[in-house]
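Input record (one chain):
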Amino acid sequence: METKRRNGVDVKLAKPKAAKAAATLPEFNAQAFLDSVGVAKTVVKYGRGEAIFTQGASCDHVLYIQSGGVKLSVLSKTGKEAVIAMLGPGDFFGEGCLAGQPLRMGSATAITPSTILRVRKRQMAELLHKQSTMSDRFISHMLTRNIRIEEDLIDQLFNSSEKRLARALLLLARYGTEAVPVRMVPKISQDTLAEMVGTTRSRVNFFLNKFKKLGFIEYRGALPIKINNSLLSVVLHD
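The corresponding structure, as predicted from the sequence alone:
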């Protein structure tokens, strides 16, 4: 992570390092591992826009994304939704139940057709206690998620909405997870992007058109969007 001097303070620039950190982890197939140790689990397929769990629901499973993408969000008492994370294949979520969380603090929604593996919290806790391979992978996931949260906070505090959008697109495209020159962002609405970035839909549309003219992204009409590595220059440029 690079630093810039702002108001006499060295500030770390938030960029998609969480994805790069995840890339250093060994490839891990959660379903194959759970099959090998005989843990009961359920695999569920969800369509785009379908709720995986809702805010206030009973918190009794840990979930793992085999394929697709998931949006985590929180709804305020006034009905305003805030997107707190966008997850992809290989990510766990819903782990709050392991810390005694009785009800879901937010909602999880499939943003693309998704395959989700569900393990009951009691079985997951026993598995983490007895199986070091699974425990190490899960700890790595939690550390990576913590890094991402810190970067998101820095991003919101110090970066413009244009930079926040560029970073969000790079993260959605799983930038840095594999050595490929371009990635595809799953089909996602501009309204959702606006919620992620903390700006208006019109500003998102303006910046998407700007990125397209500069050759940073490629798309026609609706999303998905092809992300070119040159988009990283928006995040790094001061």
